[in-house]
């Protein structure tokens, strides 16, 4: 009897000593955003850094291959949990919106299957986000709600833990202000690439208009809706051919690239006609255009910080700590002249290649 | 309120009394708790000592590991930088030999070199105005690169003939992806066409190699390595330089710059161990950062483990000591039960002789004691029984029908002879005799009464035997009130008459004297009868008191002796002295007891 009790106790003791509290690492899934190669990579690096710091595990789930250049992961340890959904469209590189939305929802399912306890996502649309939230909420079988952290977007959907985003209105203001300075407070400008359904672009447009309102001599002539580099180039060509504009504010990456392409063409054809371009983003090609002086200014956001803070918020929520509902990231205006300053180098070129 | 306080109070009192009673002071309790407390105390001290030792060792080794890792990184970097310097020298020799850098031979050699080293991004030869002389792989220089304003160009001009390494920066001279590079540059004077000419040779090496050397370092879960520039304190490499740039993180660079070896600091409320090592040739300093709480997990683990061990040991110790104490106290409790039985009056108990030595001994003694008590009890019972029997016998002897018959016969004869006087005396004596014999059932009477009894008896016998003998009685005055056992004289007198005088020719004479002898009261009965032989005398007191002889007289004497010894002890009793044809003398010796003492003795009974 006593011997049995002693044995039992010893077993219990052994069992206790084997139970390792460090075993339960939170697993955080990053659904890689679409299209924005460098920004996505920066976000991933930031998330990795935060995960390492917080002792969490980061898995990246690719909704679909990003356009443009792909980058080798800088830290092979963190690529183990990488998953891919729908690769059959790789060759042509463009997808209809509905398909991309579905791919993102599928990626969330994949992440949940892999045991993710938190999600970091840059959703394509409000619909996608609603679907994702619904999926996440039906998933929580233990009554534990999986935190969903939004990166770089603002959609009025309930059930989001935290939003990490730049202030797009402020970014628009910066762009407008920079353009005004470039033009010396006088001239006509056109907005390239606004989108009446994308809240991000609407806010940027709002910011631009707000800041330009201070300059009575600056007139916003036209708005050209376009979403790809090619269509934006066409739009820019049309604008420059038909009207006399002094500046272009490209509200999204493809728009600024398209505008710069047109400018390039005109320079090589010696058509004179120098227009100023202020764009958003920090894609490699945008940076080349910036160095060459085709684009005068870029409004740059720090993707690394977004990923880092996103994971931090997720970990805080998982640890039942205070979570900020909204984290606003700063944006920075980079010009041709200062792009190679050391600080800006670190912002614009976050990866060692 | 009051009732509650009262309730609490009563509860406390109950608890205290319970604590005071059996439990707390029981051997079982004492053994259990003293064992447990002692062992746990010892274990705790041991655990604390071990814990200190363990954690110190763990911390030392963690610090050592951190330092070693940093040393290793530094060594690797140094090695890399050295190999790059060699490469640079090789390129310089191939390119600038004889002052001619044009020619296929040089191109071929450089291309070979480039293809063998994938970490060399570009080789560029410029003149002192920043004009491109030659580059491999050949590409157009971007006008927007502003070569003359770049750091490596200026430092090559400033310190000629000295190979300088730049901080990592973005290479922006050529089209293609922007890459992080470290520029090796040197201002060299070459002789070309008989003229000295200042050229600048730039070799850009990919920073990836160094980045990986540093990034792959693992110092615990969260530890990392960063590199600073020793001269200006710029951060050369940091795994989180994005965060530093965004102001989300900062490093204590001032301290790292001046420190040698290792130091501790605190960031975001977490203590960290920093190990510092300079990298020769390139002027960088490597700082390894390890989080102390990760090192300290050893401490927590050790803590938890020790606590668990302590708990288990405590439980085990309590169990073992409970078992031990109960097995030790079991015989004691058994003994207690047996003693209780004895207390209740059951003397037929016996403890098994087993258990620990002390208990075994105790059991043996107990058994012996109980045995003795039992024997004594039996003796007492036996004695009491004997006393009653003897008394009854004595009484029965008094109411001897022969005696009564003879006496009454004598009375009838005397009545017939109209000797009324004598009849009255005889009847009176007889009645007195019986009254004293009975004397309200008392066993002890005064000497006076005993003498009176003897006197009446003698009177009756004298009359029966027609004055065949005479008698005398003398007693000291102070003996008369002493107490004596009832009816001790009569059997002796009877004996003297029946055996001594009845068959004697001469007139018999019986003398009774009572006197003190030291602390004893002595009755002496002397007759001048036929006497006894030694044999008869010894038989008188030896014969079994239980066997009744036909005559019964012999037993009566024996009965007296036994009664005296039963009442007063072995030291008292009868003594005979006899000589044939001379007579016999009997001494009765009993202790002197006054009437009052006897009363006390009765009361105390």
Brief overview:
The complex is a heterodimer of chains A (about 350) and B (about 600). Chain A has helices spanning about 1-20, 35-55, 95-115, 125-140, 170-180, 200-210, 230-240, 255-270, 285-290, 305-320, 340-350, and strands at about 25-30, 55-60, 85, 120, 150, 160-165, 185-190, 220-225, 245-250, 275-280, 295-300, 325-330, 330-335.
Strand-helix topology:
The complex is a heterodimer of chains A (353) and B (605).
Chain A: H1 2-18, E1 27-32, H2 37-54, E2 57-62, E3 83-84, H3 97-113, E4 118-121, H4 126-139, E5 148-151, E6 162-166, H5 168-182, E7 187-192, H6 199-212, E8 218-224, H7 229-242, E9 247-250, H8 253-268, E10 276-280, H9 284-292, E11 297-301, H10 303-318, E12 326-329, E13 331-335, H11 342-348
Chain B: H1 2-20, H2 22-25, H3 27-96, H4 104-116, E1 120-127, E2 132-136, H5 151-158, E3 164-165, E4 169-171, E5 179-192, E6 195-206, H6 208-215, E7 224-229, E8 235-237, H7 241-245, H8 253-258, E9 261-267, E10 270-279, E11 284-291, H9 292-295, H10 297-344, H11 357-398, H12 401-416, H13 420-438, E12 444-446, H14 447-464, E13 469-475, E14 483-485, H15 489-501, E15 508-517, E16 520-527, H16 534-542, H17 553-568, E17 573-579, E18 583-591, H18 595-604
Parallel strand pairs in B: 13-15
Antiparallel strand pairs in B: 1-2, 1-6, 3-5, 4-5, 5-6, 7-8, 7-11, 9-10, 10-11, 12-14, 15-16, 16-18, 17-18
Helix pairs in contact in B: 3-10, 11-17, 12-13, 13-14, 14-15, 15-17
